[in-house]
């Protein structure tokens, strides 16, 4: 049942993104931004954590989870360090994922030859 709920929720998030591009003709960049902001808004009102509890990886893998992570990091650090914690919290929580993407992208660029 856990796999089914993860598949359904993750698929619905992807369907929403695809509909934004197909129906409203948003660019991929606009769609990405909308999904990140939606995850941040849902995280700020506490609904995204409930979605993660229900769907597991179906809610933590899509880009909406990035927005949720930004908000959670900012709010946690703001509680401890005040206003400066809002900025540092976002970077602290997301830095490992962004660093991994940069490092693995660089390794991929070194191993494979780009065509074009």
Automatic annotation (TrEMBL):
InterPro entries: Spore_V_AE, SpoVA. It holds the Pfam family SpoVAC_SpoVAEB. It comes from the Bacteria. Keywords: Membrane, Transmembrane, Transmembrane helix. The keyword Membrane applies. The chain crosses the membrane at residues 6-24, 31-48, 93-112. PANTHER family: STAGE V SPORULATION PROTEIN AC-RELATED (PTHR38450), STAGE V SPORULATION PROTEIN AEB (PTHR38450:SF2). This is Stage V sporulation protein AE.
